[in-house]
Design goal:
By secondary structure, the chain is of the alpha+beta class. It has ten helices and 20 strands. Helix 1 runs parallel beside helix 5.
């Protein structure tokens, strides 16, 4: 038995680390250990996203996403200012390029106002060009609260703070099982069992597999969606000042290919959204037959595939054709050309899917006995991480009491 702890947290991404940090803030002296299966913290979704600080524009008012995004936004800015994390609140424009997108754009403005965003301005074609001179559209929104940040640096700093406050962060330590011994929960790892009075699982792409160790009838599965990015070559970076987004398709919890200036001055383009053939399949050649079989066996995935196969084919076309990718980007910035792009990285989004084929549009955090499972925490979880961590810490504090 590898010591006794008050709380063990499975997963060293930004949500797991934020939870540990908030627990220590609430209960100084709490014995907390973070278990991360990779050699470093923030190795998956935290380290493979576009680095955007989301404002709370898109999320249903009253939802957990909306509440934690707005609260987490303010906390994140304070944290970055206090700890010297590179960030900038630069604003973004959301652009309607087709007539049927204009009413959806107006609905977004109303939703943003309902979520407490101030200063959203409606733009005509000339107003769009005032903010982004190379962007064209029928109408747009300027959202001043959106920003950019270095999330991996934030995760590393959170890990340092956890250790400085007396906690542990163990990398290369995967959780292979969870067991209840009557008085505590045992996290089984290859390097020894960890006994804790409470356990929080923030396992991202593996979250459903971990949750099923204590919740065998879990009514959702993670579907991994790979998002592939390109980068503007230096000579083409002049085409984008800050962030340019399309109006999202309301049928999918994805925002469409867009332009993002990052804190290092580069400009990313993307991502698309294709079903990955492995949970951590960052490359097209990453294939896990066992994991594919698990995805296909889930009734919810089969319903999604039947309903949206045409949309899926379009995403795969953009995956294999740079010209198709550029055509999607050119709806926003018509000047862009194939030679302006070069391949960049990719991320894999852990998207929970219900048995009926619905893609969960809100965070899903489940609490049973001494264990709290974070079962669905896609974007804007990084923005909301400190608020999510505080909400989980409150539940865990009740368990410890």
């Amino acid at each position: 038995m590898s010591g006794a702890h008050d709380v063990a947290i499975v997963g060293g991404g930004i949500v797991g680390l934020a939870t540990a940090h908030e627990l220590q803030r609430r209960r100084p002296g709490v014995r907390v250990v973070v278990l991360e299966k990779e050699e470093r913290v923030g190795a998956h979704q935290t380290g493979h996203n576009s680095g955007v600080i989301h404002s709370g524009l898109y999320y249903a008012p009253g939802s957990l996403k909306a509440r934690t995004c707005r609260e987490g936004y303010a906390r994140l800015l304070r944290f970055c200012g206090e700890h010297g994390i590179p960030h900038e609140v630069c604003g973004k424009v959301v652009v309607a390029t087709e007539p049927d997108e204009v009413p959806r754009l107006e609905a977004l403005a109303e939703r943003g106002a309902d979520n407490g965003l101030a200063g959203i301005s409606r733009l005509g074609p000339a107003g769009i060009r005032d903010h982004e001179p190379h962007c064209e559209g029928l109408a747009g929104l300027h959202v001043p609260q959106t920003g950019i940040v270095d999330y991996p640096a934030m995760a590393r700093r959170l890990a340092e703070l956890v250790v400085a406050a007396g906690g542990e962060v163990r990398t290369a330590t995967p959780a292979v099982d969870l067991r209840d011994d009557g008085d505590a929960t045992i996290v089984v790892t290859p390097s020894g069992d960890v006994r804790a009075l409470a356990v929080v699982t923030c396992a991202g792409l593996q979250s459903d597999l971990v949750a099923r160790r204590t919740e065998p009838d879990l009514d959702l599965r993670i579907i991994p969606f790979r998002g592939e990015y390109h980068e503007l070559v230096p000579s083409a970076r002049r085409l984008v000042r800050h962030l340019i987004y399309p109006v999202p398709d309301p049928a999918f919890p994805f925002l469409g290919v867009h332009f993002t200036r990052r804190v290092d001055g580069t400009v990313e383009c993307g991502p698309n959204a294709v079903v990955a053939f492995a949970r951590e399949g960052y490359r097209k050649t990453d294939v896990s037959p066992r994991e594919i079989a698990g995805i296909v066996a889930w009734p919810g995935f089969r319903r999604i595939a039947r309903r949206y196969w045409r949309t899926g084919l379009g995403e795969y076309r953009r995956s294999f054709s740079r010209r198709a990718f550029v055509a999607a980007l050119a709806r926003l910035v018509p000047e862009i050309r194939v030679e302006d792009l070069r391949p960049a990285g990719a991320g894999v989004r852990a998207q929970a899917c219900a048995r009926d084929g619905g893609l969960l549009d809100d965070f899903d955090i489940r609490h049973a006995g001494r264990v709290v499972h974070v079962c669905n925490a896609p974007s804007p979880a990084a923005t909301a991480s400190l608020a999510i961590g505080d909400a989980i810490a409150a539940r865990v504090t009740d368990v410890l009491h």
